[in-house]
Amino acid sequence: MTGRVALITGASSGIGAALAREFSARGAMVALAARRADRLRTLAAELGEANGRALGLVCDVTREGDLERSVNATRLAFGRIDIVVANAGFAVRGRLDTLALEDYRRQFETNVLGVLRTIIAGLEELKRTRGCLVLMGSVSSYLALPAGSAYAMSKFAVRALAEALREELAPQQIGVTLVCPGFVESEIYEIDNQGVRRPGTPRRVPRRLVMSTGRAARQIVDAVARRRPEIVVTGHGRLAVLLQRHVPRLVWWGLRLASR
User: What is the domain-level CATH number for residue 9?
Assistant: First the structure.
């Protein structure tokens, strides 16, 4: 990664911040795009903003023009962009009869259209550098759970986009890596359906199943370096995807049993 430039959305916390640290540790320069300016300043300073190694960019992936400005600022600061990580996202939760159409629209605005805006804004730079596009999917893009229809729909869409673009962008020698995390340490558990953080929200996942962001970031950056088409992060995530691919009726039976 020495000398390469990575632009990461959703970089102020969770997997995004861990990826920024991992790319930087491997010699890359990083552009950090997120909404929370205070966290961006802290992380950019930690990763060497004063030495021209990092750049903080206040950016909302749902706001028109923000991503184009972020791409332009990154190119001006570093001269190129080799890796674009479309990581920004959150999870709308709830059963269908408790959600409104606006909840689904808000979910897709960030998780799908925000990803698409990121790709469109960075595509020309990746064509020039023959770089890599990294899309943040989820194990939920294979396995839709009860009360998770909005989130699963959005991640199914991201997986479909990755599969289409992998072949579409191959002639330009642009790599496309789909990342499907299972349970990874993140503030996503504290974000409500309006996208507002609620610190202290209890996590319903056993701690032993949750992977640290640092470990997840190392696996993801390894996959990007090798231009792997897809990586499923966490052992339980790989098992879930394997079962869903090969014995979906067993998975369906297990979910029904669990919901009862």
Answer: 3.40.50.720
